[in-house]
Amino acid sequence: MYCPRCGAQSEEGAKYCSACGATLPGTGAKPPGRRPLRERIGRLAGTSRRTRLLSVGTVAAIAIAIAALVALPTDENAVPQDAYTRVADAVCVHEKERIVAAQRRALKAGGSGLGRYADELVLVAAEWRSSVASTPAPPDRQDHVRTLDSALRAVEVEAGALARIARDAGRKAAIARAARLDIATGQVEGAISALGLDRCSHLAVGTGGLVRR
Coil, strand or helix: which one is 15? Predict the structure, then answer.
């Protein structure tokens, strides 16, 4: 190897010229530079077609998972399933069981059964309202509790009217009036659902007993 400065010959692999001390060419280590973007992407994605497809699929799966997580709805209005909810739910189921029992007795009574059923429904609604009032509700459910009480009050009124009509005007007029009672009971069901009484709201009152919706 010859020195580019003085022309003196040095041993192969020497870093400096033995004659003048100049740095010999080809001996300085090239500092590692930052690889080009294309090369870096290639290393990440892989060199073979199969590896690139797997890499793209992995990135797509991660992107879909992130998008799904962001898109998940947060139900801020969900009713907490706390001690109050459990107590109110149990009371609701119990009162529905009483309604079923009243229906069965009405069917056995025959022609006079409708009036008797309405009388018993007045009592069930009144006692249910009493249970609702005696169970302290959390502040965030006070409005729903008032709605349930109002709906039960409507059932109490309509059932009382139905009982009187069944006694005084006969079965045909009572059946016509029963439509208003149906509306009132539907409002009760809506209030039950709004309060988060899941077990009770999934039970429908039928002549054969409580039926899961």
Answer: coil
